[in-house]
User: Which sequence fits this backbone?
């Protein structure tokens, strides 16, 4: 079933484009970066991981290679076609209810900054619903200057140039972000809506879902390890 493009989201370039403006062919080319090492350093060896918003498996493959068991979830069947070696589930993250839990729930790709407050709340509740007792939720946040240090660009060793061209307010607490991805032989663009969150707002959003920050995993506080809030034992006379 073909999914409709979300309001305020758009993508251009070769190949299929997902409802949030992501280009499948672009994500097939993107390197995994440092993320798999950050994740592996924050969780037990051999842990079961529920990867929410896995895309084409950019991180799924490296996590499998490190000995983790991965269940990969994405709403785009065209993205999931490229995931290898993991159990895959196609559907919206915010509606997910598998009736099982995992050692680690992974919410990467800045998904916690969804512009729709209800969707964000439901995503975080899905994280809390699927994390096992004693487990953790790993969340990737936007950098704290993501929306203010624009325009900017970085050049990856792979030959990719990523440009954050603009971030402009379009509604209360919501920005429209325009990004360009240039390879020597192809160019993609994406326009999407994001809700910037201060550290305090982010921690409040976790708390609302029954989670709390265990620790920030990187100096820039982009990667976060969260755990379920402990429920106090009832007082008895």
Assistant:
């Amino acid at each position: 079933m073909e999914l409709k493009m979300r309001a305020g989201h758009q993508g251009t370039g070769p190949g299929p484009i997902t409802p949030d403006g992501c280009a499948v062919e672009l994500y097939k080319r993107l390197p995994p970066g440092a993320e798999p090492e950050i994740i592996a350093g924050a969780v037990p060896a051999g842990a079961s991981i529920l990867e929410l918003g896995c895309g084409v498996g950019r991180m799924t493959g490296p996590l499998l290679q490190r000995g983790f068991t991965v269940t990969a979830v994405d709403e785009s069947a065209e993205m999931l076609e490229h995931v290898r070696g993991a159990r895959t589930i196609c559907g919206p993250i915010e509606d997910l209810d598998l009736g099982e839990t995992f050692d680690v729930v992974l919410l990467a790709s800045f998904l916690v900054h969804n512009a729709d407050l209800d969707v964000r709340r439901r995503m975080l509740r899905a994280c809390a619903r699927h994390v096992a007792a004693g487990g953790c939720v790993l969340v990737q946040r936007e950098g704290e200057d993501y929306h203010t240090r624009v325009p900017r660009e970085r050049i990856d060793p792979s030959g990719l140039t990523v440009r954050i061209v603009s971030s402009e307010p379009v509604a209360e607490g919501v920005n429209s972000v325009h990004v360009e991805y240039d390879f020597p032989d192809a160019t993609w663009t994406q326009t999407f809506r994001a809700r910037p969150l201060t550290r305090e707002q982010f921690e409040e959003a976790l708390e609302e879902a029954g989670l709390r920050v265990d620790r920030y995993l990187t100096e820039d506080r982009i990667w976060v390890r969260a755990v379920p809030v402990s429920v106090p034992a009832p007082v008895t006379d």
About this structure: Confidence is low (pLDDT under 50) at residues 231-237. The CA atoms of residues 13 and 188 lie 4 Å apart. DSSP finds six helices and twelve strands in the chain. Residues 30-144+197-228 form a domain with the Rossmann fold fold (CATH 3.40.50.150).
